[in-house]
Amino acid sequence: MIGADTIIQGVLLGGLYALFAAGLSLVFGIMRLVNLAHGDLIVLAAYLLLVVTTALGLGPFVALLVAAPAMFVIGWTLQRVVLNRVLGPDILPPLLVTFGLSVVLQNALLEGFTNDSRRLRAGPLETASVDLGVAMVGVMPLMTFASAVAVILALQWLFYRTELGRAFRATSDDPVTASLMGVKPASIFATATGIAMLVVTIAALFLGTRANFDPTIGPARLIYAFQAVIIGGLGSLWGTLAGGVIIGVAQTVGAAINPEWQILAGHIAFLAVLLIRPRGLFPRAVD
Amino acid sequence: MAQLETRGLTARYGDFQALFGIDLTLDEGETIAIIGANGAGKTTLLRSIAGVLRQDPGMVRFDGQDIGHLPADEIMARGIAMVPEGRKLFPSLSVEENLLIGAYGRKVGGAWTPDAIYDLFPILKERRNNPGTALSGGQQQMVAIGRALMSNPRVLLCDEISLGLAPVVIRDIYAALPRIRESGASVVVVEQDIGTALKVAGRVYCIMEGRVTLEGTPDTVSRDDIHRAYFGAAA
User: Fold this and answer.
1) Is the pLDDT of residue A1 over 70?
2) For B56-95, what is each residue's pLDDT tens digit?
3) Residue (of A36, A65, A74) closest to A226 by Cα position
4) Looking at the domain assignment, is residue A190 inside a domain?
5) Average pLDDT of chain B, as a whole number
6) Closest by alpha carbon to B29, among B171, B197, B203, B194?
7) Does a structural domain hold residue A4?
8) Among the listed ranges A11-20, A34-43, A85-94, which one has the minimum average pLDDT value?
9) Predicted local confidence at residue B232, as pLDDT
10) Is residue A208 part of a domain?
11) DSSP labels, A150-199
12) A-chain residues within 8 Å CB-CB of B101?
């Protein structure tokens, strides 16, 4: 039966998809770079959290404080050393390089951690729930959604209220003119990817505590993230949240009708939105 | 010693050579004009000075130091700001944000603050929260000039700031030039409008096909000299 409960669970699941998508949206918005390794980077961050929790005996939320800065450095270095070299008028080289990176990450993780399913343990929080009146909802899904909103608020503040955000938008508009303002596009891009990796680590935390993960699940996370970004409209962070929620709700409603339809329903919702609004719901970017 | 000079500056785009050894000097506090026809190399010259195009180190010297090889952001940090051809405002930024980002790479303090820019171009204050690209061409040019001034530059490079604007608007914009000079900045104006160039500049260079064909003060160069330097020898 499709009731309020199904819808609420779908909205909360949408928070997870929005977290997957926010980093992708950020990177695409600033440098028109489609990072095909985004999903695998989420999985990499999940393994990093796993290593920190097991090696240091920390809970996953505390481990975030260690893993997130490490992922920032990884993202910054990746952009500086690899991706900046392939950015240019031709969009194909970055696609090929990030596709290759995706393959490398999957195989490196397979080599390092085997194909066993792993998960992050959050203790009693995993089963805790609260009664919202219309439905019982898990504390973890609520936290996931709240984190998605918080991440988007933070990115929104960064983009529209800070000097760095102005530099992000100016570089996105026109890197050559931005350099006449003293902006170094190469370092702006590296910072942006670093920040995207902070978001990726938060996404990985909720991915790993919600369900199992193994080295091969990255590409599917990339698809959900992509769909959320496209549904929301390129360049709109709130649109990305809306896109995540639409996919989340479609999936839970689809699963409520027939469990086989869960993933399919999300894809159909994506296509339906594109039919009605080919540029997404809240497009900002003009290209 | 000149504040800014180019020595045998050459520039090329692939196989096409745009500049063939340009020598020019700019003294502190001076205003010079660079005139020439379309495609003469005026914009290439400014872009080479500003670091958008990088050349050999010694081809551009500023304060006696070689800067020809430096990237745009480092040249801007040293105090050379450019108003680019076609204004190039950032569409994602409001008028005020366009001004603020002008100081991104150089925060030295000085005469130019957003309030000082609004004082210079009062219309911009009313439109401060509009997107930069929602303004008229003349107002956009004011934003582009204000944006460059925000870094309190020691040298201001202006690339065809009258391009595509009505004469009355051009007059308004050039009326700001004396106050820009009072702030201590030296100014390089690239102009196709010879009359305007001769009016504002202390010295003028004419460029044709990548070479300096005429150099002098406005009262020593005649219209005939300019005509020859602009279009080549009379057929």
Assistant:
1) no
2) 999 999 999 999 999 999 999 999 999 999 999 999 999 9
3) A36
4) yes
5) 93
6) B203
7) no
8) A85-94
9) 78
10) yes
11) HHHHHHHHHHHHSHHHHHHHHHHH-HHHHHHTT--HHHHHHHHHHHHHHH
12) 163, 166-167, 170, 178, 181, 183
Q: What is the mean pLDDT of residues A222-251?
A: 93
- Residue pair A221/A207 in contact (Cβ under 8 Å)? The answer is yes
Residue A53, domain member (yes or no): yes
Q: What is the pLDDT of residue B234?
A: 55
Q: Tell me which residue has tokens 């551009």.
A: B60
Which residues of chain A make contact with B82, given a CB cutoff of 8 A?
180
- Give, in order, the Cα–Cα distances in Å from B55 to each of A277, B1, B26, B59, B60: 48, 22, 19, 7, 8
Residue B10, SS3? strand
Distance between CA atoms of B99 and B149, rounded to whole angstroms? 9
Q: Choose the mutation target among A162, A179, A180, A183 for the interface with B, i.e. most B CBs under 10 Å.
A: A180
Q: Which residues of A touch B90 (CB under 8 A)?
A: 169-170, 173-174, 177-178
Q: What is the pTM of this model?
A: 0.91
What does the buried/exposed string (b/e) look like for B56-88 if buried means 16 or more CB atoms within 10 Å of the residue's CB?
A: eeebbbbeeeebbebebbbbbbbbbbbbbbebb
CB atoms within 10 A of CB A46: 31
Percentage of residues in chain B having pLDDT higher than 90: 82
CB contact under 8 A, A182 and B52: no
Report the alpha-carbon distance of residue A107 to residue A253 in Å, rounded.
Answer: 35
pLDDT confidence band for A287 (50 / 70 / 90) = very low
Intra-chain end-to-end CA distance of chain A, in Å:
42
Buried b (16+ CB within 10 A) or exposed e, B195-209: ebbbebbebbbbbbe
Write down all domains in chain B, each with its CATH number in brackets: 4-231 (3.40.50.300)
Q: Could A180 and B100 be called an inter-chain contact, meaning their C-beta atoms sit closer than 8 Å?
A: no
- Nearest to A19, CA basis, from A169, A189, A197: A197
Task: Count structural domains, chain A.
Answer: 1
Length of chain B measured in residues: 235
Residue-number span of the structural domain to which A239 is assigned = 12-114+162-276
| SS3 label, residue A22 | helix
Tell me: ipTM over 0.90: yes
Summarised one tens digit per residue, pLDDT across range A125-140 is 989 999 988 889 999 9
Q: Judge whether residue A286 has pLDDT over 60.
A: no
Residue A122 scores a pLDDT above 70: yes
* Structure tokens belonging to residue A263: 């993933």
Q: How many Å apart are CA B38 and CA A194, to the nearest integer? A: 44
pLDDT value, residue A171: 95
For B232: left if phi > 0, alpha if psi spans -120 to 50, otherwise beta; the answer is left
State both tokens at B35: 């005139």
Task: Say if residue B231's pLDDT is above 90.
Answer: no
